[in-house]
Amino acid sequence: MRKTSFLTALLLTSVSFVFSQANADRQGTTATPGSTPAPQQSVQPHNQVPSATQAPPPSTSSEPSGQAQTISAAGTTARYISAGTTIRANLDTPLSTRTSKIGDRFTATVTAPVQDAAGNIIVPMGSKVNGQITEPSNEKLASAIKGMGHLNLRFTNIQLANGTDIPINATLLSVHRASMRTPGEANSQTASNAIGANTALSRAFGPPMKGVAVGNFTGGGYVLSTTGKQVDLPADCGLRLRVDRETPLP
Domains of the chain (ranges plus CATH)? Predict the structure, then answer.
């Protein structure tokens, strides 16, 4: 009897211990009210760049390199001699109704540089103005000056120092006596950059020639004697021309 009671007490103690252990395990796995579960860390692939430091995608609106060159080329302003530009030149050889014939050619040396609208020299001193003795193309004019001493001059082109020819249409405005310059008054343009620059630098326009009258027409002009039947234009006399229309440079 005593032995049976001892075994019963031992069994009850074992059952109580098992229930106590199970209750403790259940409390350890239950979340405490109001507590925040620990965040789970995501595994990031090794070859992925973090978004905060990720490089921006390449721009697809970049301008083609050729377009800038086209705009630059299109923006280049063509050079030309403006209509109304005055050209001063001195005859290289004399012209006279006594010796000159229809068809004879003549040259004159530019004595003042011609500039474009931007101030760049486009026709330097020493360039050559080429012309020709012609007949008046206007019948009324030819009839009016018939029997009077006259020279009909037509200007054809300008030749630059490098041999470039610029066709021109120019009107003769006036004829002047030559006047010599002193070295201090001469333009300082480099002589090597012009044809016959040494001669051009020594000349200047004097007053209008006496005894002649100038009639102008598009492309040239005529010099008419007011004192007789002969017209004599000496070498170095000045010719003042006006360009009749805008003339592009080659």
Answer: 80-248 (2.40.128)
